[in-house]
UniProtKB/TrEMBL annotation:
Name of the top EC class for this enzyme: ligase
GO molecular function, one term: biotin--[biotin carboxyl-carrier protein] ligase activity
Residue ranges of every copy of the BPL/LPL catalytic domain listed in the record: 16-206
Entry keywords, A to Z: ATP-binding, Biotin, Ligase, Nucleotide-binding
Coiled coil spans: none
Name the UniProt record assigns to this protein: biotin--[biotin carboxyl-carrier protein] ligase
Species the sequence originates in: Devosia algicola
Organism taxonomic ancestry: Bacteria, Pseudomonadati, Pseudomonadota, Alphaproteobacteria, Hyphomicrobiales
Highest taxon above the source species: Bacteria
EC identifiers of the protein: 6.3.4.15
Matching SUPFAM superfamilies: C-terminal domain of transcriptional repressors, Class II aaRS and biotin synthetases
Catalytic activity, reaction form: biotin + L-lysyl-[protein] + ATP = N(6)-biotinyl-L-lysyl-[protein] + AMP + diphosphate + H(+)
InterPro entries linked to this entry: aa-tRNA-synth_II/BPL/LPL (IPR045864), Biotin_CoA_COase_ligase (IPR004408), BPL_C (IPR003142), BPL_LPL_catalytic (IPR004143), Transcriptional_repressor_C (IPR008988)
A matching Pfam family: BPL_LplA_LipB
Length: 278
């Protein structure tokens, strides 16, 4: 039994749900539904993915008991505005985790730079463009995929992967889980909270008209603002200080010569690890 359930706000807003114990990919399920004529507003949630994927076609495995969830929507917004839904997703997931984790398990400060150990609580933060970190280790990821429909609109599959019980093995970067953080929360609990938080933040987004407010919330929860950063753009490394996220959602790096470089995509590393990992 998967026993997934929508939160009360999500039910009231008319969202639907399809739950699985295991599935190939919740994003694939969503995009297949879109091709079949689904009007959107439906969640696909699973305790395990056997063919999940991350950014740039990377594999994203989901050990059983973790959360894999995808929301299919067909927004009334142009593609450029729809691309900012990743920030809606990040803020929604950050809020959901904040509701589920005791306050003593969350601490504030630039990721990896405040000098407080795990005994003081984990630092939960958003990493540009689409990860959630706990003390610099990946706790969750978000993947957006778009599909053009016959009527010219775009269906958007917004995928969430949360390490509830275990982090995948063999990753090229640190990863953690809620269990490793000493927090016992099931995938079903995370999903129910996420589905409600999505309603609030998506309403704020307002078909792209409210993206400025969403980005403000994203910055407040961001990892690494004001700290050294390096960005790998297909082998080209950009280094400097992570200054902010601009109004289009681009990462702004201030280089040593004070030039401000706008980054639209790339793999980001912070602080002392920036040089070593890039």
């Amino acid at each position: 039994m998967t026993a997934f359930a929508l939160g009360p706000k999500a039910r009231t807003a008319g969202y639907r749900l399809c739950g699985f114990d295991a599935v190939g990919s919740t994003n694939s399920e969503a995009l297949t539904a879109a091709t079949g004529g689904d009007a959107g507003g439906i969640w696909f949630a699973a305790l395990q993915q056997t063919a999940g994927r991350g950014r740039r076609g990377r594999q994203w495995s989901t050990p059983h008991g973790n959360l894999a969830a995808t929301l299919l929507i067909i927004p009334d917004a142009d593609p450029a505005a729809a691309a900012t839904l990743g920030f809606v997703a990040g803020v929604s997931l950050n809020r959901a985790l904040g509701q589920l984790l005791p306050a003593t398990d969350i601490r504030i400060g630039i990721d990896g730079a405040d000098g407080i150990g795990h005994s003081q609580g984990a630092r939960i933060a958003l990493k540009w463009p689409n990860d959630v970190l706990a003390d610099g280790a990946k706790l969750a990821g978000i993947l957006l995929e778009a599909q053009k429909l016959d009527d010219g609109r775009h269906a958007i599959a917004i995928g969430f992967g949360v390490n509830a019980v275990a982090a995948p093995d063999g990753l090229p970067y640190p990863a953690t889980s809620l269990t490793e953080l000493g927090v016992a929360r099931s995938a079903q609990q995370i999903f129910e909270s996420l589905s409600d938080c999505w309603v609030d933040v998506f309403g704020l987004w307002a078909d792209g008209h409210g993206i400025a407010a969403v980005l403000d919330y994203w910055r407040q929860a961001a990892a690494g603002i004001g700290a050294p950063v390096s960005v790998n753009q297909n082998g080209q490394i950009v280094r400097g200080i992570f200054e902010t996220i601009d109004d289009a959602g681009r990462l702004i790096v201030r280089a040593d010569n004070d030039a401000r470089i706008a980054i639209t995509a790339g793999d980001v590393h912070f602080g002392a690890t920036a040089s070593a990992r890039s």
